[in-house]
Amino acid sequence: MFDVLVYLYETYYRPDACPDSQALVKKLSAVGFEEEEISKALDWLTDLAVATNELSDQHPYQPISFGTRIYIAMELDTLGTAAVGFIQFLESAKVLNAVQREIVIERALAASSEQISLDKLKVIVLMVLWSQGKEPDGLMFDELFLDEDDAEPRMLH
Which H or E run includes 50? Predict the structure, then answer.
């Protein structure tokens, strides 16, 4: 599923640039993606749109939260401490607001019942921003595309 999402992100500048779902399924199949993976990815994107609309309707002004997000045990088990820390980093860097954070968490929980890797969480963040027509600045974009395996230790100074 994540390979399909990355392909969509890299191929289509905005979600509205994607062809209709039947044409998109044909194109993704022609590129070599499995039918099951395509179906999972498109269902995930449909649910992303629903979650975005529901949360945006509940919080139309996208409030800025200075509070601390408390994660329940199930969220911590699925996200893991690295993902929670990364989400907090993105929020403090103003890449995500409180509503977007909740959408990222909801979509991460929907993507896996097992602990999600940081690389997959980064794809989810990109897809949430992509679905809203937002693009992170260059430095954040690099951070979101940096693989865990390629990451060098950061120097603090």
Answer: helix 35-58
How many other C-beta atoms are found inside a 10 Å radius of the C-beta of residue 42? 19
In the structure encoding, which two tokens stand for residue 39, read together?
């179906």
DSSP state of 60: T
Q: Which amino acid type is present at position 3?
A: D
Query: Which token pair is 136?
Result: 């992170």
Alpha-helix residue ranges (DSSP H) falling in 59-154: 73-92, 98-111, 118-131, 138-145
pLDDT digits (tens, 9 = 90+) for 120-149: 999 999 999 988 888 766 656 666 655 555
Which positions ≥6 away from 62 have C-beta within 8 Å?
A: 56, 97, 98, 99, 100
101: which 2 tokens?
């954070």
Q: Is 152 helix (H, G, I), strand (E, B) or coil?
A: coil
Q: Which residues of 123-143 are buried (b: 16+ CB within 10 A; e: fewer)?
A: bbbbbbbbbbeeebeeebeeb
Q: Give the chain's mean pLDDT.
A: 83
